[in-house]
């Protein structure tokens, strides 16, 4: 008899969702995490009384969370205390001017109309169309397995309404946005969320246009930090007997006769189970943990062809003043043109952006418990590749952080550099070292159309029986709602097939 019914490799949010749901199905489930903490890129740590998030800072599109907790016999509301973030964004333009967007779609239309009446009307039209797409896609596509072409066909036949949105699939994010909006300032203010798929506006798929709308269905901050999400998942899993072991790195997946049979840990211990759920990067899984010798040639070729997603350095600061920002989430923006030019030019040469281009999250705007009394926290997510030629991420990270804070002080957040009590720079190398995320890829694999849905590594492996994937590198991709959806999909498939 096998040691467990299921082994989950990795306690990221996707892995914990799958683990908790499988335990709920009555399976003896073991989750193995190499790190000291759970949550992976959705976590929180404490330093000098400040609480800093490790990666994800924005929580929106709650439906997958609601569904997962319903399946666990509870509710999202009961398990996690959420603070709504309204305004949804503060925008800081290149010239230092600012705009604050409220949660209300109509109130935002009024603000946009003051810049361009035509774009104000277009915003309402856009919100109707992409809002409809988002709701249809989340229910029909996001939460359904799309392992095969027949799965894809089933998703569309279940809701043929999806076909109405085809124009979003064959255009870029920039083309979709320019189709609606004409004023460059309005475009600059709406284009940052396209970056959440790790690509510039000219390359990001048009379907991600819904991201510039998604926050209007609600953006939230889990009280106490992003760790509250994986903690809730772990708590629920443990109620059903899920076992979690920290500090246990999986070195190999045991495979015999094209079937997963268990895992080997770094210390050589073997643990057996007929079902393995991988929450780690799919390239690492197939090429290192399983090994090419166990893969058919097409799978070998296929897995090597995926590109890793972009990385993002993050600067966490504890401040002894209240930074002059008007929202929990703030975008220091540049034009779409500059964002594209950086991607195709300097970035390919391993250079960092010359201007600050960042998502600045201000957790103490919503939750004072994130810092000692009278102090504040910012998490600054920058743009920057893993391979840089102008510095060494390990050697120069302090200097990099200080330079970025100076630039942000000059352009966007006066006084910032003078009020830092604590600064931590988390580089792509750090993510790679701490979470074993290759090249610090924040979304696992690229999120372009050829790496999405039926083209992404399948939730139920086509090469190895008993192997399932949950997390950023399988459908529906990276980002918190997606990895929770992937955990639901993996556990449903296991229930169906095993
Ligand atoms: C800087 C940054 C900002 C982001 N911002 C946002 C945001 O605002 N909103 C949003 O929705 N998303 C955001 N994301 C993306 C989001 O955080 C991730 O897509 C998501 O958390 C990934 O979850 P996952 O389940 O795939 O697992 P991961 O978080 O990748 O966790 C995988 C786990 O597996 C463990 N592991 C790895 N190898 C092994 C092994 N061999 N043995 C055992 N354990 C192993 C790791 O230690 C880790 O704990 C951001 C990511 C980053 C890095």
Helix content range of the residues, please?
25-40%
Q: What is the architecture of the largest domain at the second tier of CATH? A: 3-Layer(bba) Sandwich
How many individual helices? Answer: 17
Number of domains as seen in the coordinates? 3
Q: Helix/strand-derived class? A: alpha/beta
The small molecules bound here are: flavin-adenine dinucleotide
List strands and helices in order, with pairings:
Layout: E1 6-9, H1 13-24, E2 29-32, E3 44-47, E4 50-53, E5 59-60, H2 63-71, H3 76-79, E6 82-84, E7 89-92, E8 98-101, H4 105-115, H5 117-142, H6 149-158, H7 166-169, H8 173-180, H9 184-191, H10 211-214, E9 219-222, H11 228-239, E10 243-245, E11 250-256, E12 259-265, E13 270-272, E14 275-278, H12 282-291, H13 297-305, E15 314-319, E16 329-332, H14 336-344, E17 358-361, E18 376-381, H15 397-411, E19 420-426, H16 428-435, E20 467-469, H17 480-497
Parallel strand pairs: 1-2, 1-14, 2-10, 7-16, 14-20
Antiparallel strand pairs: 3-4, 5-9, 6-9, 7-8, 11-12, 12-13, 15-18, 15-19, 16-17, 17-18
Helix pairs in contact: 1-11, 1-17, 2-17, 4-5
Bound molecules: flavin-adenine dinucleotide.
Flavin-adenine dinucleotide binds at residues 9-15, 32-35, 40-42, 55-58, 249-250, 279-280, 312, 314, 381, 431, 435-437, 442-443, 471-472, 478-480, 483.
Any descriptors?
498 residues, alpha/beta, FAD/NAD(P)-binding domain, Guanine Nucleotide Dissociation Inhibitor, domain 2, 3 domains, seven-stranded mixed beta sheet, five-stranded parallel beta sheet, 17 helices, globular
């Amino acid at each position: 008899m096998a040691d467990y019914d299921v082994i989950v490799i990795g306690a990221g949010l996707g892995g914990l969702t799958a683990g908790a749901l499988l335990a709920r199905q009555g399976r003896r489930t073991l989750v193995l995490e190499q790190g000291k903490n759970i949550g992976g890129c959705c976590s929180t740590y404490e330093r000098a009384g400040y609480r800093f998030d490790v990666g994800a800072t924005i929580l929106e599109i709650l439906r997958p969370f609601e569904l997962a907790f319903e399946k666990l016999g509870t509710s999202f509301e009961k398990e996690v205390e959420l603070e709504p973030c309204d305004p949804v964004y503060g925008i800081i333009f290149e010239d230092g001017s600012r705009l604050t967007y409220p949660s209300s779609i109509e109130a935002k239309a009024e603000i946009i109309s003051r810049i361009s009446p035509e774009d104000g009307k277009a915003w309402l039209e856009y919100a109707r169309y992409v809002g409809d797409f988002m709701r249809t896609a989340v229910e029909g596509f996001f939460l359904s397995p799309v392992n095969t072409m027949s799965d894809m066909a089933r998703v569309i036949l279940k809701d043929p309404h999806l076909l109405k949105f085809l124009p979003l699939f064959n255009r870029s994010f920039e083309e979709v946005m320019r189709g609606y909006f004409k004023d460059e300032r309005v475009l600059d203010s709406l284009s940052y969320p396209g970056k959440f798929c790790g690509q510039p506006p000219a390359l990001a798929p048009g379907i991600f246009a819904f991201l510039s709308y998604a926050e209007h269905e609600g953006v939230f901050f889990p009280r106490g930090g992003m760790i509250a999400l994986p903690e809730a998942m772990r708590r629920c899993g443990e109620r059903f007997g899920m076992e979690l072991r920290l500090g246990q790195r999986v070195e190999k997946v045991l495979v015999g006769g094209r079937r997963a049979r268990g895992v080997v840990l770094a210390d050589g211990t073997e643990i057996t189970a007929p079902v393995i759920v991988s929450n780690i990067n799919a390239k690492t899984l197939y090429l290192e943990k399983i090994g090419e010798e166990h893969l058919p040639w097409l799978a070998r070729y296929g897995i090597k062809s995926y590109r890793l997603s972009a990385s993002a350095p993050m600067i966490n600061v504890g401040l002894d003043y209240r930074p002059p920002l008007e929202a929990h989430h703030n975008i220091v923006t540049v034009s779409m043109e500059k964002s594209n030019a950086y991607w195709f030019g300097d970035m390919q040469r391993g250079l960092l952006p010359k201007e600050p281009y960042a998502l600045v999250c201000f957790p103490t705007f919503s939750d004072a418990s994130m810092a000692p009394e009278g102090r504040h926290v910012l998490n600054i997510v920058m743009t920057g590749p893993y391979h840089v030629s102008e510095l060494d991420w390990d050697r120069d990270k302090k200097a990099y952080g200080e330079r970025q804070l100076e630039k942000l002080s000059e352009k966007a957040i006066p006084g910032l550099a003078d009020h830092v009590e604590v600064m931590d720079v988390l580089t792509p190398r750090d993510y790679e070292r701490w979470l074993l995320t290759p090249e610090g890829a924040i979304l696992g694999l690229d999120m372009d159309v050829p790496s999405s849905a039926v083209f992404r590594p399948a939730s139920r492996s086509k090469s190895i029986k008993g192997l399932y994937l949950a997390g950023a590198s399988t459908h529906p991709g990276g980002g918190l709602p997606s990895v929770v959806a992937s955990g639901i999909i993996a556990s449903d498939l296991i229930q169906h097939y095993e």
